[in-house]
Amino acid sequence: MSKIVECIPNFSEGQNQATIDGLVATAKSVPGVTLLDYSSDASHNRSVFTLVGDEVAIQEVAFRLVKYASEHIDMTKHHGEHPRMGATDVLPFVPIKDISTEECVDISKKVAERINKELQIPIFLYEASATCPERTNLAKVRKGQFEGMPEKLLEENWAPDFGDRKIHPTAGVTAVGARMPLVAFNVNLDTDNLEIASKIAKIIRGSGGGYKYCKAIGVMLEERHIAQVSMNMVNFEKCSLYRTFETIKFEARRYGVNIISSEIIGLAPAKALIDVAEYYLQVEDFDYSKQVLENHLLG
């Protein structure tokens, strides 16, 4: 395939293995699409899939996944640490090869329209697909979550981009859009005090006066009895992972807390990780395009 589009649907299910297996099977059901990765988290009660395909096949698999999720995930019974408003919570399309962001915006709008028409799930367009500045930021779109969406949809400025002003009774609302690659990056702390993680998240996220391209919340990992700073790095080239990592380490010390570990959810661009290695190794005059072997092998 010449044009390659990435799609990273986030589903509000991280506990029911049968439903997750069904989503995996659906993700593999369309020729021309490859499921690169998927991960599920029970505390977040969320699964993140990473698929790539041509511009036609990726639209079909995205619709099938949203349909399957709407049939097997009941948001009236959903509980988890991660903010959410729909069975398929968010459905982003990312340009990877020989395709523009504008083309991905067109793809997102076609898929959004089909989802609403055939499944009656209301859609908000976000990021590059947003129809107004207030809808660019996913956090603002999702504010209120599933439980607050019926009232939110009746507010003057929050009519869905596709659909009526009422949620799907069990599948909720879905955000669909186009964006550049982001890195889902989490840092685990050696404390079970969620308030500490939340305070640190507020300091580092852009909306709290921190890093413009960092979105962060504090969450509790119940099965491990530890608090986590959960982040979406929406532009790793303008805000590197090491910068937020070091800031979290610095801020945690004031509470007598240390970092246990960090994790990356799903796939990450190689450069995001190499930037971290370059920083911690203090490599001088490193040239990513010339000095990474795989860049020469893969083109």
Automatic annotation (TrEMBL):
Domain of life: Bacteria
GO BP of this protein: L-histidine catabolic process to glutamate and formamide; L-histidine catabolic process to glutamate and formate
Keyword Transferase carried by entry: yes
Pathway note: Amino-acid degradation; L-histidine degradation into L-glutamate; L-glutamate from N-formimidoyl-L-glutamate (transferase route): step 1/1
Listed name of the protein: glutamate formimidoyltransferase
Organism classification: Bacteria, Bacillati, Bacillota, Bacilli, Lactobacillales
UniProt GO MF annotations: folic acid binding; glutamate formimidoyltransferase activity
UniProt enzyme class: transferase
Segments forming domain Formiminotransferase N-terminal subdomain: 3-180
InterPro entries, per the entry: Formiminotransferase_C, Formiminotransferase_C_sf, Formiminotransferase_cat, Formiminotransferase_N, Formiminotransferase_N_sf, FormiminoTrfase_cat_dom_sf, FTCD
